[in-house]
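Methods — Computational structure assignment.
A single polypeptide chain was analysed. Its primary sequence is given first, followed by the predicted tertiary structure written as structure tokens.
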Amino acid sequence: MQAVILAAGKGTRLRPLTDDKPKALVEVDGRPLLEDVFDNLLEVGADELIVVVGHLKEQIIDRYGDTYEGVPITYAHQREQLGLAHAILQVEPHVDDDFVLMLGDNVFRGNLGDVVNRQREDRADAAFLVEEVPWEEASRYGVLDTNEYGEIVEVMEKPEDPPSNLVMTGFYTFTPAIFHACHLVQQSDRGEYELPDAIDLLIQSGRTIDAIRMEGWRVDVGYPEDRDRVEEKLRDELGRDVVSVTLTEPSSEAETD
């Protein structure tokens, strides 16, 4: 299973932590964010890592080279940071089949394996973890609008007036159909090619999309205070000697934090 990691960002909101390094190399609890992402992907069975690099890319390439823990790394170069859909298109020549996508600035302790399992069972064109966030934070994310039956009818990127507080996290699986959708996406008002717009095109075309509720926790490290929050959560986990990563379908007995 190939895994794509988006790690080309500058991390301007993370300054001064990113004054001299790419966002993905900001350290949390003494380790770069990117290593935590790699470890999560290896846990769910990734046998190739495809890293999209851009800003200060040499630091990432020099640090990790061609392999991580024996798993080969391929680098794809995003020369302009024009959004996540644009970043995904940079890996199109390297992807052979279904793949996992993970954002390089998210720390997860949760049921990532459920998404991979669902993809294999349902052959959905997209599957991803979702979570409810405080309403005032929803406009930071890709927001899902659902009908009365709980079916996803629309996905929108950072809406000013979110229709719900149910948002996509930074972990997805896709079939190659996502590449066609990304090619069709129009530039947003923010000047970017948005991944939620590509997923919305899949929805509107009748493709199978699965949303799986997050179990455990996730932190999107966008600001310096987010890094502090992650480190506090990790310290709490170590204090209890509990790390929960679920690789099977969730059950009522699943251990979460």
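Note: Confidence is low (pLDDT under 50) at residues 240-257.
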